[in-house]
Amino acid sequence: MNIFPMRYGLILRAFLVCLGICSAFRTNLAEESATQSFEKWFDAEAVSKAIKNVQPATVVVQQKGRDGDVRGKASGFVIDAEEALVATNFHVIGEGRPVEVVFQSGQRLEVSEIYASSPSSDLAILKLETVEPLASSLTLRPEIARQGEMVLGFGNPQGLQFSVVPGLVSAVRELDAAVRAENEELPDFELLQLAMPIEQGNSGGPVVDREGQVVGVVTLRHRVTTNLGFAVPSRELQQLLETPNRVSIERWQVLGQIDRRIWEPLMGADWGQKNGAVTVSEPGDGFGGRSLCLYHDEPSAGAYETAVEVRLEAESGAAGLVLGADGGERHIGVYPSNGRIRVTVFGGADVYSWNILDQIETPSYRPGSWNKLRTRLDKGLLTVWVNGDQVFEQQLGPGQIFGNRVGLCKFRDTSAEFRYFEMGRSLDNGSLDAEEVERLDRALTLLMRAGDSGVAMKQLTQSPRDSRAVIEQRRREIQKQLVQLDELERELHTQQVSRELVMALDKPEEEIDLFEMALQIAALDDDELHLQHYRDSFGRLVHEADLFIQAQQGDSSSEAEILRRFLFEECGYHGSRSEYYNPANSHINRVLDDREGLPITLSLLFLEMARRLSISPVYGVPLPGQFMVGFASMDQDSQKPTRRYLNVFDNAEILDRKQASDVIVRLTGRVPKSEDFRKADARSIARRMLQNLIAIQVDQERQPVEALPYLDALLAIAPDSGSDRFRRALILFEKKAYEKSISDLDWLLHQRPPGIDYEKLSQFREMIADQLSTKAAE
């Protein structure tokens, strides 16, 4: 399973690196001969028949603005006439605006829902609002197109609707491994390289063979020549069709777009404005997900300063200020990234032209809060302040300042907010002497204690600007205290939930309520989770399942098979493919709400429903890489009970042992052992769920400190887990919680679980103890 959180704008630059000039020259030769070869390979009758069959199923996909005007046109095609499903590119609908589909007949239909979407493959399937079946649809060819195969492309180039063009598949290629190694978010599946004219408006159009079967979906063209482009193979579309992730169009639409009279977005991403702040989400089209939003006005000649307050949704992101920009891909960036302030010179499109000047770890930066960045560029001298404190100063060379544009930047899949953007000669609010600060601070303290004190207010209003600076300093101190209180509150919440989790598991195995156990794990991330609401909701689901099973009396299927039919076919629960690593997939309340989840959470739902309905034997199977459900089914030939395995994540397929093993081999590359098919007890299921959440924060989000509540809960139910205790000690050390880290290390040194080098562990403990002593001395 491929999970790629980036749009396809990034693929273009990667392919340019892979192909090079010589390859492009060879492609041009192929393009010149394409028409001649096409005439020999396709006779006029075949072409006419293909066009006649395909064109009625092609459509114009129109994105509409908030006033109903058409903002952009692209292509699409019908893939299911009965269900009224139309395929197109994700980037065609990616801005969350209303979408309309226009047929060749002139018929116009609104989109009622986004039936399925995948940013990683740039594909989307739209469901149209109609009570009547559509007139025609196209068939997806399961076999991938061959190199040299002649094809037809349909679309709406430059607004010329329902056009057709011949071409050939000049290559079927993956990205070069070296390019993928530079950025793990680049896709690694094969694309069709097309030698055919591709223009703006072709996106989402079908590429068909001589029988009119779809072999690919146009996704982008070469940025140098219009006669070279790429298409996603139809098998990717077929997979998306089989695993829908439906979203109503009402939920899809988002207002609050960026004001282009003030800002100029570059390189993709979703820039918007809300409540006076500039917002950004989604990866940009630049390398590393880079995107810029340049301010239309330019600073005056000479020295200038820029400033903005920025808040990141997650500290693993990166977003901040741009200066010295040329209006393209070259600029200076000053931005927080992973809790540090990074200053980088971007000399071009890829990482080889980037130069990180410094990565500054400063106490002035407040993670999770609004932070004010300020820069000054004066005759090449770059100075950077964070929340009023200078953190960087360096003389830049003439080749490191590219222009006079300023603005905002973002990287990776960051979501961020910006407010109070400023540009000018000097944005310094001035500095106060110690005596003035002390005088105003006393007045502020008096005012806060006594309320509306005339004396205190008079002192403050005499120097309003200075008083505001003192108030800002006091606010920072209070914010720091609030952060400490928030941490304390979260720690207490984690301890309370951990106790509830221990109590839920401290029962005979057959009495353990797996849903309650999972609900407590979900509560770790939501201290306002309405537990009773979800207990009642799940109870109603179980009752509905009971009625469904009773209604199937006389069915030869086992009760487990009927429950499978109810949960995964009748109710539509399914595996989450497009957002596999979203923590919501591990939260049982969200799985219940959204009807999608991970293998283990979907299995848990099934297992607890079976337990409450007295359906047995049904048990969890902890296979590596994909949790499954085991149950007994009557073999039709021998009429004897046989073990079967329910692959809840992949269409809830019923598998025999060999088929289940084959799934694991494809996922992990190794054959599962006999013990992998053993029954999983409730405690091991809880541990596996918590390990999933830990892995998301450590490996995916790169925020190990956020994994601490899960580790606390895990060690509450499995206190003898040496590996987890050591991991917690490392994260606590990174958080600078030295005393707590030493406590875990002392436990390890005393209990001495196997698999640890205790000599190095002792040295590590001594190093932390030295850090603690240094901190105390300061």
Mean model confidence by pLDDT: 84
The total beta strand count reads 33
Q: How would a textbook summarize the main sheet? A: 7 strands, antiparallel
Number of H- or I-type helical stretches: 20
Low-confidence stretches: 1-38, 178-186
Characterize the overall form. globular
* Proportion of residues in extended strands: 25-35%
Helical fraction equals 25-40%
Rounded Rg? 30 Å
Strand order of the largest sheet: 14-17-26-19-20-21-22
Amino- and carboxy-terminal Cα gap: 51 Å
What structural category arises from helix and sheet content? Answer: alpha+beta
Structure summarized in a few sentences:
This protein has 778 residues and is of the alpha+beta class.
Question: Could you characterize the architecture of this molecule?
Answer:
- This protein is of the alpha+beta class and 778 residues long.
- Helix content is 37%, strand content 27%.
- The protein has a seven-stranded antiparallel β-sheet with strand order 14-17-26-19-20-21-22, with no helix packed on it. Strands 15-16-27-18-23-24-25 form a seven-stranded antiparallel β-sheet, with no helix packed on it.
- A hairpin with a 6-residue loop joins β30 (618-621) and β31.
- The longest helix has 42 residues, at 464-505.
